[in-house]
Design goal:
heme binding; 38% helix; elongated; metal-binding; two-stranded antiparallel ribbon; alpha+beta; 21% strand; Flavocytochrome B2, Chain A, domain 1; five-stranded mixed sheet
């Protein structure tokens, strides 16, 4: 079985490709040139352009819950990997700081320690509210029902 080698790109190189005429996405450590797919994307080209401009599009891609067909389509747009990742898309973090592409006046540069994406504490609190709000609604509804049924003779 032959392992296919791909060109390695830095975040700085990837950040230079975020326009309608040249759009690359970084998903799971792999670099995809999706320029030809922009007009065909069911969610619209703006979604892809925004994901491209934000640096690592992995969270945006996963949050949508793409079908297996959409996921398999990615391979046809694969052009390389993020520098410091293996061909499987796993990041080698032994000697690498995490970073995110930041845009200022049309110039891409790398800001250290910001590629993590979501703030873990905000994600945890969001999960808490997903369960807490329905519970509060249930308690208020039950309390209201109990109050009105108790006052009946």
């Amino acid at each position: 079985m032959e392992v296919e080698e791909h060109k390695a790109f830095t975040l700085s190189e990837i950040s230079l490709h975020s326009s309608k005429s040249d759009c690359w996405l970084l998903i799971h450590g792999k670099v995809y040139d999706v320029t030809m797919f922009l007009e065909d994307h069911p969610g619209g080209e703006d979604v892809l352009l925004e994901a491209s401009a934000n640096g690592d599009a992995t969270n945006a891609f996963e949050d949508v819950g793409h079908s297996s067909t959409a996921t398999s389509m990615l391979s046809s747009y694969l052009i390389g990997v993020l520098e410091g990742t293996s061909n499987s898309g796993t990041v080698d973090t032994r000697n690498q700081q995490s970073s995110k592409v930041v845009r200022r006046e049309g110039v891409g540069f790398v800001a250290p320690n910001t590629i993590k994406g979501r703030n873990p504490s905000s994600s945890a609190s969001m999960n808490l509210f997903e369960y807490l709000i329905p519970l509060i609604i249930f308690v208020v509804a039950f309390g209201t029902w109990y109050f009105f049924n108790k006052t009946k003779p």
